[in-house]
Amino acid sequence: MKKSNLTNEELKELKYFLVERIVDNMETKDLVAYVMDDLNDMYKKMSDTEFLNDAQNYWDDGFDDVVEEIKEYANSEFKKPSEERGHV
Fold first, then answer.
1. What is the rounded CA–CA span in Å between residue 42 and residue 6?
2. What is the pTM of this model?
3. I need a surface site. Which of 13, 48, 56, 87 has the fewest CB within 10 A?
4. Is residue 50 part of a domain?
5. Residue 16 within a domain
């Protein structure tokens, strides 16, 4: 592959422009799938403590209620296997 005569700043701008174009041309459903996959990967790599801190910061005062709902759901008969939801 031929290397262009780009400065570091120009290469940085070219990368940003490519990202912008790719995102602009994606359908909403594809963007949602991409972000969900990215967030799932990020949370899988975090320690439990880091993840729980992020979750608590996100839900703030509602965190305890969300945890209770998740506990009820996780122990219910109606739960889908995690593979069906795209998580492993």
1. 32
2. 0.66
3. 48
4. yes
5. no
Residue 36 lies in a domain: yes
Q: Position 7: which residue type?
A: T
Q: How many CB atoms lie within 10 A of CB 85?
A: 10
Q: How far, in Å, CA of 77 to CA of 88, rounded?
A: 19
**Domain of residue 75, residue span:** 27-85
CA 74 to chain centre: 21
* Cα–Cα dist 21/27, whole Å: 12
Cα–Cα distance for residue pair 76/47, rounded to 1 Å: 26
Tokens 């940003």 correspond to 16
**pLDDT, tens digit (0-9, with 9 covering 90-100), for 34-76:** 999 999 999 999 999 999 999 999 999 999 999 999 999 998 8
Q: How many structural domains are present in the chain?
A: 1
The pLDDT value given to residue 32: 96
- The band of 85, judged by pLDDT with boundaries at 50, 70 and 90, is low
**What is the pLDDT, as a whole number, of residue 78?**
78
